[in-house]
Design a protein that fits this description.
Blueprint: H1 12-17, E1 37-40, E2 49-52, H2 66-71, H3 92-122, H4 127-151, H5 157-176, H6 180-202, H7 208-234, H8 236-260, H9 262-267, H10 272-290, H11 294-305
Antiparallel strand pairs: 1-2
Length: 307
């Protein structure tokens, strides 16, 4: 049975349980089925303007640069907002959970930096562009470190390194084998879609300082996602088989990662179902841009469910 691509986000609830049972769709913040925009890509493979369909969430937030956010920190901003329906940022339980969530974000940005530099060794003609993307990830890491300092929290980096270790190992294995397609799928598609979905869900419940940082980061992450999409699209004829194999190996790992962090994320008012639905939707949109058909995307989703 060929599932229409629009059905992918509906399976989020079933994906959590590991069962092939379609669940009701979880709306994404800012959903607008008619929303399609034309925007330029930063990727060197962009030919002028291309049609993309990023989440309309970006239209709902006032994007600020990381530098502006870091320039005006205020610890007082992080306290007392629970009266507005937000978490109590000063509570011990919040800070405990945040120490792991924040560490995951910091480690994710460090991994991204290292991965883009490494991919540059596989695509020497793109090394300069990939180095530029890598530098952006270090800027993000400094911003999220400032977020922890603003709340008086020490990030649990050993936890975060262990959290990323399965994807890290798969990336390093692919790198050693010269598999640029697998490396790009892991970093520029899977990890970037993971980050984008997490930031979407986090921004509405973040403390004011972290919200400014994260809003600025999201713009950059779309640039990185677009780079991976455009490279893989340009090479799809020779990359298809490796892409499908890399999906089978790595998409189930993201499901496990989301399950592993669910309890801490819930303390921050980030619900597992919302994270899963947003990730699946972002990943689906990326595969559409790469050039996969509706039937192929459905088969790739099924492979993750039974993985």
């Amino acid at each position: 049975m060929a599932w229409p691509w629009m059905a992918w986000p509906w399976i989020a609830g079933a994906w959590i349980a590991g069962a092939w049972i379609p669940g009701p769709p979880t709306p994404r913040l800012g959903d607008d089925p008619a929303g399609t925009e034309i925007r330029p890509l930063a990727s060197p493979f962009s030919l002028g303007m291309v049609t993309v369909n990023p989440t309309p969430f970006l239209d709902l937030v006032a994007m600020t640069t990381l530098e502006t956010a870091v320039a005006s920190p205020s610890g007082a901003e992080a306290v007392g907002s629970h009266s507005l329906g937000l978490p109590d940022f000063s509570s011990a339980s919040y800070k405990d959970a945040y120490s792991r969530i924040n560490a995951i974000v910091i480690e994710g940005e460090q991994e991204a930096h290292d991965n883009y530099v490494s991919i540059g060794t596989l695509i020497p003609e793109q090394a300069e562009e990939l180095s530029r993307l890598a530098r952006m990830e270090l800027k993000h890491m400094r911003g999220f470190t400032a977020c922890a300092n603003n709340l008086g929290v020490t990030a649990d980096m050993p936890f975060a390194k262990e959290f990323f270790s399965p994807l890290h190992q798969n990336f390093q294995t692919a790198l050693a084998e010269g598999k640029v397609v697998t490396c790009l799928l892991i970093q520029a598609i899977l990890i970037e879609a993971f980050a984008i979905s997490a930031y979407h869900i986090y921004i509405p419940v973040a403390d004011p300082f972290a919200r400014k940082i994260t809003e600025g980061v999201v713009k950059d992450e779309y640039t990185h996602l677009n780079y991976g999409q455009e490279w893989l699209k340009a090479n799809l004829a020779t990359a298809r088989e490796e892409l499908e194999q890399a999906n089978r190996q790595n998409l189930p790992l993201v499901r496990k990662m989301l399950q592993q962090v669910a309890a801490d994320a819930s303390v921050l008012q980030m619900e597992q179902e919302d994270l899963m639905a947003d990730f699946l939707s972002s990943y689906q949109e990326a595969l559409v841009e790469v050039g996969f058909t509706n039937r192929e995307i459905a088969k790739m989703a099924a492979a993750a469910l039974v993985g």
